[in-house]
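step: validate -> pass
step: tokenize input -> pass
step: predict -> running
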Amino acid sequence: MRNILNNNKMMAIIFTLIVISVLLLAYFFIKPEVKEKEIHVFLNGNEHQAISLLSEYVDDGFKMKIGKEEVDTMNLDYKMSSTIDPSVPGKYEVNYEIMYDNQIYHLKRVVEVKDEEAPVLTIEQEVAEKYFCKKTNKMNLSYRAEDNYDGIITDKVKVEVGEKNVILSVSDSSGNETRKEIPLKEMDDQKVAIIELKGKETVYIPLGGTYEEEGATLIDGCGDEKSEEITITGNVDTQTPGEYEVNYQYKDDNQKVTKTRKVIVYEIKKNENIQENSKKIVYLTFDDGPGQYTEELLNILKKHDVKVTFFVTNQFKKYVPLIKRESEEGHVVAVHSLTHNWKIYQSVETYMKDFNDMNEIVAKYTGEKSKLFRFPGGSSNTISRKYAKGVVSSIASHMTKNGYTYFDWNVDSEDAAGASSKQILSNAINGINSRDVSVVLMHDIKKNTIAVIEEFIVYAKENGFTFKTLSPSAQTVHHHINN
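step: predict -> pass
step: emit ->
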């Protein structure tokens, strides 16, 4: 029995030694192998990087090693997110989330977008000129500053005036500064005195009217108004048509200054109208086209067999050839303006140049020039006062005398003022219902007008109105001429 126990003990001891040996082998042989297969994940390049403003950023990516062996990232499951905006300076993050063997690894890179470009400071002069007449530090100095991030920063330019030079400096929001220096030259900027007329240099007066002398002012060489007396000579005979001059003169020991005002006395000529006998007549007129909606309008007019009058311009050259279709489909094509620029009212001559140039275009597409026209702004416009006194009255007389007829309107749809389609329709319907003969003002360049023109035509026809086109024999509608 004792031998059996001793044998069992020996067996236990031997088994224990075997287990210990196995564990030792696992420690020395298996453990180092696990160490060699440790996973390392790290960024390519630096964790903190900087790029220039507005430059393209391409991240360097990351690497993974299992033990000493590098893993192809194309075979890895990962997500990359970035907040980088290269157009705005600041610090941003690039984040990676990498999934491998049921583990998630996180990497972060900080990228700073830096504005290191100084503003561009442009000075138009090589020498700054300081003038006698102007106040302290007032110079002939023009400059512009522009930054790649802040944009135009001319208002941030600082100007330092020394005895012999001028220093200009400007900094952007990132602190980048540009400085430039140019020489300073003292100037004697006094000029010859001038006479400035009160009122317009060209004045139009109807025969038998009254010429009112508005006077003039003497301006010295520094642009200041002086009280010295100006001599006025010249005679205007408002009972005789013609062109007159009124002369203004100032003279002293050093200088003689003169100025002339042109006064044109014109004979009034009015249209002789043939009155319409029938009632409920609608003259539908469209100004300012052809434009992008004119073709749609022509389709509607053709559908309802309605003829209208177009007062055309050359504002939208792409659509000007539509004048040909307007004419071919029986509409009347009349002149509005080549440019629709208010400067045409500087004189009768400038107006006629604009008118004739537009009439040549009308003839090109219709085969003949038009004898009908409408003033830009209507004959009652007051904007023309800015350019020449009495000019619209003179143009109206000149044109009438030469066989042209102008038309204003007595129904305003107010589409030019931005009225809604509903209001345009209401204005037009109320307008034609309140008179026997209506000249309706609309614009074929207004979308809101085209949206309701068919409804207006249907209403007018159903209520007994007749559509006609304007002609020299039609009843003219004239506003009161305010200039």
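step: describe -> The chain has four domains: 39-114, 120-187, 194-266, 281-468.
step: cleanup -> pass
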